[in-house]
Design brief:
- With about 150 residues, the chain is α/β, with parallel strands linked by helices.
- It has a domain at about 40-130: Glutaredoxin.
- Helix content is about 20%, strand content about 15%.
- The protein has helices at about 55-65, 75-85, 120-130, and strands at about 15, 45-50, 65-70, 95, 105-110, 110-115.
- Strands 1-6-5-3-4-2 form a 6-stranded mixed sheet, sandwiched between helices.
- The chain is globular, with a radius of gyration of 14 Å.
Amino acid sequence: MVLRSPEPPSGVESFDVPSRNHVEGSVDYAQTPPVGGDHSPQWQNCGFYSSRIRNENAVHSMEHGAVWITYKQDIQQDQTHRIRQLAAGQTHVLASSYPDLPAAVVVSAWGRQLRLDSADDPRLEQFIRYFKQGPTTPEPGAPCSGGVGSPR
């Protein structure tokens, strides 16, 4: 069992998320990647994806308490392997590549985000331990499986 971190890591940005309605189609989000807001009625199944997933599905997963690790497609293979390890066997960790990220790795939870230069930064794991099904989760206990997508 992984213990919850007693506090979030340094450098976490906080954002106001004014609504969380189910909507069809695309949503224009204020953050890249998004940290919450209106989203698809279907959540993304948690796990590791080597390609991009829809923002609207990932946001629904974050509403359920998932932490979303996004990474640049061209990061080194050891970095991708580390992210895959962090997502493996976790019920509420989602990972995918993401175009035009402002950092090599960006980890997000509902209303919170942290930019990192490396997947080896210990703050990545601390973020997961603090925010997964954590204090900002709008729907704690909701599933991160039974939705859309097939993680690998």
